[in-house]
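re the bet — no i am not wrong, look at it urself. input seq straight from the record:
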Amino acid sequence: MLTVHHLGKSQSERIVWLCEELGIPYELKLYARDPVTRLGPPEYKALHPLGTAPIITDGNVVLAESAAIMEYIMAKYGNGGLIPAATDPAFADYLYWFHFANGSLQPNLGRSMILSRLDLPADNPMLNWVSARRDLVMGLVEKRLGEKDYLAGDAFTAADIVTVFSLTTMRLFLPMDLSPYPNILAYLQRIGARDAYRRALKKSDPDLTPMLT
C-alpha cells in the first residue's frame, strides 16, 4: 500500500493532492510539528535520514523529495494522467514549470525566509540580491499566468501541483503580499475550485484555511 507520511503544513500536501487528483488508493499518516522547533517529531525523522517532508513508503520503497515522489507515483500509478504526452506541444512547457517549482521558485523563497529572520539592515547586499531574485521569479510566474490558465498551458497538470505550495502554505513561514500579482491570485482561485485540492487540504491539514488570497 502506498503510504503518504504528511508533516503538518509542509510540502507533503503536494503528494496528498496528487493522489486525490489521480484518484488512487493511499494511506495517509499525519504527523504534528514539534511546538518549539517547528520540525518533525522523532517518529517522522526516523523514516528517512534527512527527516524532511514529504516522505512516502510503498512496500519496501522509502522515498523523499517531492518532485521525485510525484514522478514515482505518476509513473507507477498515474496511467498517464497529469502529464502531457511527449508529442504534445505543451510537453516542454510542462517539464520547465514542473522543475521550476523546486529549482527556482522554492529556493528563492527559502533564501528570503532565512534572511528575513536575521535582522539584516535594509541595505545589506545579499538581502537586496535575494529580494531582486525573488521579484524576478515571481514576475515570471505572473507573466506566464497572464498568458495561460495553467503553467503548462490550457490544461491543469502536475506542474501546478508542485508549484502551488510555494504560493500558498509557504506564506505561513514567509508572509508575502500577492496583491501585486493579479494573475497569480486569479490562478489560485481556479486551483481552490478543484474538488481534489479541497479534499487534500481537508485531509492533510483540516485546521488550515487554504491561503488563496
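see?? Residues 2-82+198-204 form a domain with the Glutaredoxin fold (CATH 3.40.30.10). told u. also The chain has two domains: 2-82+198-204, 91-194. so pay up
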